[in-house]
Amino acid sequence: MQISSWIRIFLAFIGSVLFLDGAILIAFKKIHIGTVLPLLLGLFFYFYAYFYYHVERFFFYHFRLHSIWRFGWLCFWAWLVSLGYFFNYLADNNAKTQQVPPVKAIIVLGSGVENGQPSATLAKRLDRAAPIALAQPDAKLVLTGGIDYGETESEAVVMARYLHKQYNIPATRVILEDKSTSTELNLKNSQPLLAAQQINLQQPIAIVTSDFHTLRAAAIAQKQGYRNITLLGASTPLSTRYNAWLREYFAYVSGWLLKEY
């Protein structure tokens, strides 16, 4: 009896944390699987804790349903282990310091604009790219991203303005790819712009994105024919870090299942 009471307390606590995490971020219009799933899981855990004895009693007297219930929990724990492995991979990969070799171009992948300003995640990407661009003045800087919903300027334009204001990077260094709405299009639409600068996909190119996104971005780039890439991951703001990692988990798995790379 004492053990079950501790289980209920633990589930109620976890449920409350997950629910509040998802609810707060959704209230700030960050609506995606990385925020919706914690909210739903939080609700499930909270109500399971509240009705714990009723649920367990119901399944105890319904053997077939009880087996399905237990199998469902087994699948959940297996998924949780795989998620933990994915998070651990990201954490280990991001902890490694990476030397940036000389490159012909630096592509910065878009990540959203809010009220005419780079989102916190996008600002981190630009802050990661700027020192490299300043250290390698001959490298072209390709900024990618079209117009977000509710915005009037493309991500690329907003990114260029941020880099000029914060790092005094002149417009002559910048190439705007202002049509894309996804990672795949970021990289695809950048190709003719690179070609116009006599830069081919066999030459060294740096791709700057967020830490959680490097694995999938590299896979997409390689499929498109980029052969000499250096992936650079910018840190993700702590407030959205694990939600973003959770969303990326599903994006990477679905891309792999759909053979997108």
Commentary on this structure:
The protein is 60% helix and 11% strand. The protein has nine helices and seven strands; from the N terminus they run ααααβββαβαβαβαβα. The chain has helices at 2-27, 33-50, 52-60, 63-95, 120-135, 155-167, 183-196, 214-224, 241-257, and strands spanning 105-108, 113-114, 117-118, 140-144, 174-177, 205-210, 229-234. α5 crosses α6. The mean pLDDT is 90.
Order of helices and strands: HHHHEEEHEHEHEHEH
Major sheet size, sense and barrel closure: 5 strands, parallel
Number of strands: 7
Number of alpha- plus pi-helical segments: 9
Mean pLDDT over the full residue set: 90
Give the strand order of the largest sheet, numbering strands 1, 2, ... along the chain.
5-4-1-6-7
Helical content, roughly?
Answer: 55-70%
Model regions low in confidence, pLDDT < 50 over at least 5 residues:
none
Name the beta content range. Answer: 5-15%
Q: Structural class from helices and strands?
A: alpha/beta
Over the alpha carbons, how many angstroms does the gyration radius reach?
22 Å
Alpha carbon gap, first and last residue: 51 Å
The coarse silhouette is elongated
What key attributes describe this structure?
261 residues, 5-stranded parallel β-sheet
What topology does this entry show?
Elements: H1 2-27, H2 33-50, H3 52-60, H4 63-95, E1 105-108, E2 113-114, E3 117-118, H5 120-135, E4 140-144, H6 155-167, E5 174-177, H7 183-196, E6 205-210, H8 214-224, E7 229-234, H9 241-257
Parallel strand pairs: 1-4, 1-6, 4-5, 6-7
Antiparallel strand pairs: 2-3
Helix pairs in contact: 1-2, 2-9, 4-9, 5-6, 7-8
